[in-house]
Amino acid sequence: MGNKRLINGRDRILFEKIIEEATVDCYDEYEQISGWACVLEDNLPVPCKCLIGKENAILEKIDTNSNSTEIFGIVILNKSKIRVPIEDISLENLDSTKYIDAYRYWRKHG
């Protein structure tokens, strides 16, 4: 697992499809974040094992901050429940990781 990897042309095409799914019919940044939260909730098998840095944790659910400008994972780490920016979470399930990778790509490249 790792939250940084090289992006190739096939990845970009996949990410663009996921971005379209997440942001279709969204008029502003707030609606786009809500769209992303829905896509992540629908496609990440929570609860699931994850890494926060090098620490093993459990991703319990997806949430947004109060003004819908950022997406967080609610994570159980060392028996504590914490909020972690979703882009800082790495998943064991590689198929599900593509959704977080697409979100990272969107945040970086708009």
Describe the structure.
With 110 residues, the chain is of the alpha+beta class. The chain has one domain. It contains three helices and five strands. The protein has helices spanning 9-23, 29-43, 94-109, and strands at 48-52, 55-64, 71-77, 80-85, 89-91. A five-stranded antiparallel β-sheet has the order 4-3-2-1-5. Helix 1 packs across helix 2 (29-43) and helix 2 runs antiparallel to helix 3 (94-109).
The helix-strand sequence is HHEEEEEH
**Domain module count:** 1
For the biggest sheet, the summary is: 5 strands, antiparallel
Strand content: 25-35%
Overall mean confidence score, pLDDT: 91
Discrete helix count: 3
Helix/strand class: alpha+beta
Ends distance: 25 Å
Amount of helix: 40-55%
Low-pLDDT sequence parts: none
Question: Order of strands across the biggest sheet?
Answer: 4-3-2-1-5
- Say what oligomer this is: single chain
Q: Tally the beta strands.
A: 5
**Overall radius of gyration:** 13 Å
Tertiary shape? globular
